Here is the input.
Amino acid sequence: MTKTIDSFAALKLPAPLLSSLIEVGYETPSPIQAACIPLFLAGRDLLGEAQTGTGKTAAFALPLLARLDLAKKVPQALVLTPTRELAIQVAEAFQKYAHNMPGFHVLPVYGGQSMVIQLRALSRGAHIIVGTPGRIMDHLERKSLNLDGLQTLVLDEADEMLRMGFIDDVEWILEHTPAARQTALFSATMPDPIRRIAQRYLRDPQEVKIRSATTTVAAIKQRYWQVRGADKLEALTRMLEVEEDFEAALIFVRTKTATIDLAEKLEARGYEAAALNGDMTQGLREQVVERLKSGSLDIVVATDVAARGLDVPRISHVINYDVPYDTEAYVHRIGRTGRAGRVGSAILFVAPREMRMLKAIERATRQPIEPINLPTRGEVAERRIAQFRQQILDVLAEENLDFFYEVVRRMESEENLATRQIATALAFLAQRERPLRPDGVEMPASMMREEPVKAAPPVARAIPSATAVLPVPTFQAAERKPREEAPVVRERKERPAPRDFGNAPLVRYRIEVGKNQGAMPKEIVGAIANEGAIDGKLIGQINLFDDYSTVELPELPSELIDILRRTRVKQLPLKIRPAAPGEGDKPSFSKSTPRKSYDKSERRPRADDAARPARSDRPASADFSKRPPYRDDKKPAFGKPTGGKPAFGKPAFSKPAGKPRPR
Here is the structure.
């Protein structure tokens, strides 16, 4: 019964939508789009079962836009999503498809955004509302959202709303919408509670089932590493080092605190990493996503809820640092990669006690998950060397090196050095921050082979013929003085001792992080103390402003300023510099001054010292052991007495159990 549709024009969509799809680059509809769009246009209720990443957003967005009456600026369609990230993504999709529909307005409504802004936008009117259940309920209760003109209601990711405990809120919203509406429900899985909602609120629904779970997962290379004693962080960094085709990674952990902890540890190891969790402000979360899209961020450590709806094509790897609680969560996690026809990679960290979950995941995805071994330090070194060599070859092939060629030529002649000696020193300087040979690694095996040394490519290949006017110096072996090279002894770096500033006066410096970036004084103190080897006692007053802060430090040498300028707080470089006159005059925070210690023997005697009893003559402390026991049955912790003996701390009113809805 399935009919192949090879163009969006065959779906009888309006011309403005077809032109927008051409601009976006869509050519042929996906299976779920080809099946759902005609049903939407016909006004049928719909029950769609399709996995994340199959294109279901366009499957309901395009027909909803086709049926809009732009002259009526009232909500004609409502889309419910489980998370604010997904609400924003769906609203952006509507805006993108309606690019050629002047006067169209879509409004995302979710918790975390100012209620005043949303009330003002609702008063102006919108054609389509996209929101989370909790905030939609708020507006319905306030009567700031009028759904009398609603024609279509879409439940997106219904199984996720069930898992997050929002299904009761969804039913409440369904009961407060017009009975004559068209309803569509989309879900990656179809558990019994979702089917019951469909039977109760959908009228003779047409069921569309797109079995794309295996095809979507088939585009993802799935592997697992069994945790055996080694540190998970060390294993993670080694894998990131040796992974082929690595562009960006999404790392999943279970808790919000774990996102911050792991992101900070990865950043300390030189990766551009950031956390993404529900405790962050909406502005910071959107900033992290934009940085990931633009390429200024390579790793995001997130929880399941925070990453819901995240669609960034450059994510090449999904790493399950913590095993998910169920198989559906695993499918949703790895669905963040392998999108838009690209091949993705998924790695699962699994402990021996979690092997049963691994088997359940294999059954759910109907795909074997291959084991991998932890890369050795030698393999990490080999990978770094290969990347380093490729960088050199790319520079030789693409850059104009005339100036640097002359610098090296002069060093050869003036310092009586060989080209290989200069290149060795330059290689050492280039790899100082990211050593080619990690600590404890001997010479890589590939460099120990006794092979004939290949002649280096002539330097002239990097110099355009039109500009190659510099004389190429020639040297004879007899002209070079033999140099005795002492064996290099590499010692492991230790934490530097605190710097000695003597009695240097405090100078006020400006740093480019402030309140708007979420910076805290303790984070600024920790970053400066750790990276600059400055004793925390020497750090003076810190003033926080909206977009910058000031901190009082001993007068810093230029090399230390260079170090602190690159030091990061809240994923942003400090860019420290001396403050201009007047900057930081308004105090916002100051470190507490340590209590001055003194010798009691130096205290001046008082007139009544003789009359004061000695310590041994003072009365003993009061004995509270004979006080009557505390009675907790007098009244509840708060609220009016409800009779009987209430549980301590329980309020007099209660709310049905369930997870909190997003505000």
